[in-house]
């Protein structure tokens, strides 16, 4: 895209708050949670979970980050594009990935009630208990990141893959 095409875009919003600067201990704790949650979770699956939760939570900053990280980890654009309609595009994903995506939705949208037994059972069938514990931690972590991003209006578009690693 050339610069003249950029001039036709809506202006970029400014963040409400640089929360990590004002709560550095919270930010450090979130990083520790993130690192701990990654153990035993496939890196591509980890990014799919983050993308799906971020789609549901409308976190543009996290969508920008995790789609870029997913592509850098070897994910395809096609599978990322289809993720928001995964129920109609199940043939793009493995049974294990589908179980993780469905669990991500159930944990993310707790306003719908609780994590249904059948959703949990599908995930428990696909993952060992330690893997499942880490997957749940990854889902919890991205939901927390999404809430920081959305409430403080973090600005998407400037992330470079691996920037925060």
Describe the structure.
With 165 residues, this protein is mainly alpha-helical. 64% of the residues lie in helices and 0% in strands. The protein has helices at residues 3-6, 19-22, 24-38, 43-57, 60-72, 77-82, 95-108, 117-126, 129-152. α3 packs antiparallel against α9, α7 (95-108) runs antiparallel to α8 and α7 packs across α9. The longest helix is centred in the C-terminal third of the chain and has 24 residues, at 129-152. The radius of gyration is 16 Å and the shape is globular. The two termini are 28 Å apart.
Index terms:
165 residues; mainly alpha; globular
Helix fraction bin: 55-70%
Number of strands: 0
Q: Which residues form runs of ≥5 with pLDDT under 50?
A: none
How far is it from the N-terminal to the C-terminal residue, by CA? 28 Å
Q: What is the beta-strand fraction?
A: under 5%
- What is the ordering of alpha helices and beta strands? HHHHHHHHH
Computed Rg: 16 Å
What is the number of helices? 9
Global morphology: globular
